[in-house]
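Note on ligand handling. Small-molecule inputs were canonicalized before submission; formal charges were left as drawn, and no protonation-state enumeration was performed. Where a ligand contained multiple stereocentres, the stereochemistry in the source SMILES was retained. For zinc ion, this procedure yielded the string shown in the input block below.
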Amino acid sequence: MVFFALLVGAELDGLTNLQPRGGCDDPSYPYYFKLRCESCGETSAKTTCVSLDEVVQLPTGKGTANLLQKCKLCSREGSVVVIPGQGTPLTAEQSQKGEMTCLMVFECRGYEPIEFAFGNGWKAESVHGTPFDIDLSEGEFDEYDEKGECPVALSKLQSTFKVVKKQGFHGKTRYV
Ligand SMILES: [Zn+2]
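Structure output:
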């Protein structure tokens, strides 16, 4: 199995703390991405949806996963487990430095996650504290912050899956 961190970046203008609407560990937030089979290299044609509260029993009877999928080409079965507690919102500071933030970690067997798709169901706040619900399907967002009396905007979304290692650190588990 391999651990993948989902890293997300964007150009934030007057906005900060971009994250799924229920927070980074929102149990029902659907993460959309494609899967590439590690055995034959085939990429799934359809986008896969994985969320924390969708739990399936592994065929071995031992343990659970958040997704089980069979490769259409070689029929090998793989699984994805969502690992909460690792994500932090994308801040204005990170955006200014061109940095990305880790939103979630996925433990993958038999597959590599690729092509994360931003959908609806995000939120951020203006630097003056006004909350905004954001739909990222179009990849951009423009609004006016009445309280701060300034326009806010989001653009240049980017995302990547990075291989990370599980580490014990002062009694806590981290993925770096
Ligand atoms: Zn395959």
